[in-house]
Amino acid sequence: MSTYPKIQLTTREQRILSLVAEGLTTPLIAAEMNLSPETVKWYRKRIIRKFSATTSAEVVKKAIEENII
């Protein structure tokens, strides 16, 4: 049973999270999605807050546990 509430992500947040889980860096995600690195950083911080996490690794772990990615 999950210990985390269901996290609601936008389509863009889901895509960024998937790329983070694949191991892409912020500059690579920015290039892949045709965004500025600063925009990607903003989304990454927003995703981390939504998961009540402190690191991207923690977000990926929680997302896998929740079948989000």
Strand count: 0
H/E element order = HHHH
- Report the top-level CATH class: Mainly Alpha
Oligomeric status of the shown chains? Answer: single chain
CATH superfamily: Winged helix-like DNA-binding domain superfamily/Winged helix DNA-binding domain
CATH domain topology: Arc Repressor Mutant, subunit A
Shape-level CATH architecture: Orthogonal Bundle
Helicity level: 55-70%
Q: Quick check: average pLDDT? A: 92
What would you call the shape? Answer: globular
What's a quick, concise take on this entry?
This protein has 4 helices and no strands. The chain has 69 residues and is mainly α.
Please tag this protein with its features.
single chain, 69 residues, mainly alpha, Arc Repressor Mutant, subunit A, 4 helices
Structure overview:
The protein is mainly α. The protein has a single domain (11-65), classed as Arc Repressor Mutant, subunit A (Orthogonal Bundle). The chain contains four helices and no strands. It has helices at residues 11-21, 26-33, 37-50, 56-65.
Secondary structure layout:
Layout: H1 11-21, H2 26-33, H3 37-50, H4 56-65
